[in-house]
Recover the amino acids of this structure.
């Protein structure tokens, strides 16, 4: 990222001095490729693949939802530590200014060096010289945030606490959060840099509750693209909503004008995010026969085609699958048309102390209403899916994702916190 650029719309250096002091010890691995997009949520421009291009920050919807899925993820859930509404709003504005610069490939504020020797730098510096790598930053507000700052009356009815599902074994240390930031990029160091700087800017006002690094996207929002494989070696979610399917996005993902009461109009153009950390019993799966693996998913492992079909995108014949096959149970035809947009990533977090990999799927799903999307779908899967023998949900959170930042004068959360909005 460039060290110093046009600073219009960014806080002054003296305003940024208070951002220092809370550097995070975060690791990263080698960089991936990058593709540019012209507008937030639009399809990628393949011609810009070598440019490490930038995804536009401004738009009616936040980038990082319908945007073509990048290769890497750093997701962080935060707890709010301040009771001062004005201080929290100031932080959201500072976060927006920093996000606007980082997604464009610029350093935060005046950069990582060359400023006052007596003050912490405005930027941590590990992304100096790196391309934007299609970085997107997406913010969401958790149910618990609405217990603060006199926001109780503005909590959307669709932002419900998720019920306990059969088989859940949730770790409280990896569950919930007052707000979240989803950083996606083709270079892991760019994604980590973004979360690190936002956490530093928020020091004293927010603190990271939990975070998750992800690699190897397991879903695609690009039309006709091959579906990536998960750590079980299978393609899943081949009929995911594409970023170009505006009608399906409007129907299933974006919150509409008439959704909720007048105090919920701030969510128009936004969406609802469910995040689930799903651990895979890798060692058990790896000792399972190929035939049983394919029966569990309802897919051919080689091509990814549904049972009895030839190609991965062929329409599945559900009755040809076993009644407890994952594809059959998750398909909209088995769930009264329920459709969600998935942006999941694989993860490996070392071992569990017993010689087993701590690995699996970090599931991210966007939808127009959690009550009509993830909840009924997961109730069906958690009670019937043959895949449950090999997975366990160990972390969970739900967030209201507000609409996009419209222009240089707009900021994350303005529609919620600004009375004029």
């Amino acid at each position: 990222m460039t060290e110093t650029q046009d600073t219009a719309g960014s806080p002054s250096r003296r305003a940024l001095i208070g951002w220092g002091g809370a550097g995070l010890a975060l690791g990263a691995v080698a960089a991936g490729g990058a593709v540019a997009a012209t507008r937030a949520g639009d399809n990628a421009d393949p011609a810009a693949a070598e440019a490490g291009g930038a995804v536009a920050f401004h738009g009616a919807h936040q980038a990082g939802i319908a945007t073509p899925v990048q290769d890497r993820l750093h997701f962080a859930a935060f707890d709010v530590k301040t009771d001062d509404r004005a201080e929290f709003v100031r932080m959201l504005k500072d976060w927006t200014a920093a996000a606007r610069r980082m997604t464009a490939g610029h350093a935060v504020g005046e950069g990582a060096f060359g400023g006052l020797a007596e003050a912490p730098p405005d930027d941590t510096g590990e992304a100096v010289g790196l391309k934007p790598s299609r970085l997107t930053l997406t913010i969401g507000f958790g149910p618990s945030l609405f217990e603060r700052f006199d926001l109780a009356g503005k909590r959307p009815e669709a932002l419900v606490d998720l019920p306990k599902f059969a088989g859940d074994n949730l770790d409280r240390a990896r569950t919930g959060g007052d707000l979240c930031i989803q950083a996606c990029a083709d270079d892991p160091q760019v994604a980590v840099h973004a979360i690190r700087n936002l956490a530093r800017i928020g020091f004293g006002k927010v603190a990271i509750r939990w975070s998750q690094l992800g690699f190897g996207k397991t879903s695609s929002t690009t039309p006709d693209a091959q579906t990536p494989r998960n750590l079980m070696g299978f393609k899943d979610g081949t009929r995911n909503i594409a970023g170009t399917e505006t009608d399906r996005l409007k129907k299933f993902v974006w919150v509409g004008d008439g959704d909720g009461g007048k105090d919920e109009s701030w969510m128009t153009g936004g969406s609802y995010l469910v995040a689930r950390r799903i651990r895979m019993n890798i060692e058990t799966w790896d000792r399972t026969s190929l035939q049983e693996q394919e029966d569990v998913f309802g897919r051919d492992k080689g091509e990814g085609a549904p049972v009895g079909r030839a190609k991965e995108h062929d329409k599945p014949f559900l009755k040809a699958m076993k009644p407890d096959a994952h594809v059959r149970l998750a398909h909209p035809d088995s769930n009264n048309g329920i459709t969600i947009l998935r942006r999941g990533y694989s993860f490996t977090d070392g071992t569990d102390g017993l010689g087993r990999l701590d690995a699996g799927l970090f599931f991210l799903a966007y939808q127009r209403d959690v009550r009509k999307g993830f909840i009924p779908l997961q109730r069906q899967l958690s009670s019937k899916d043959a895949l449950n023998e090999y997975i366990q949900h160990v972390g969970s959170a739900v967030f209201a994702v507000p609409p996009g930042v419209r222009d240089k004068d707009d900021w994350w959360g303005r529609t919620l916190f600004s009375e004029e909005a």
Q: What stands out?
A: The first strand starts at residue 36 and ends at 37. Residues 3-50 have pLDDT under 50 and may be disordered.
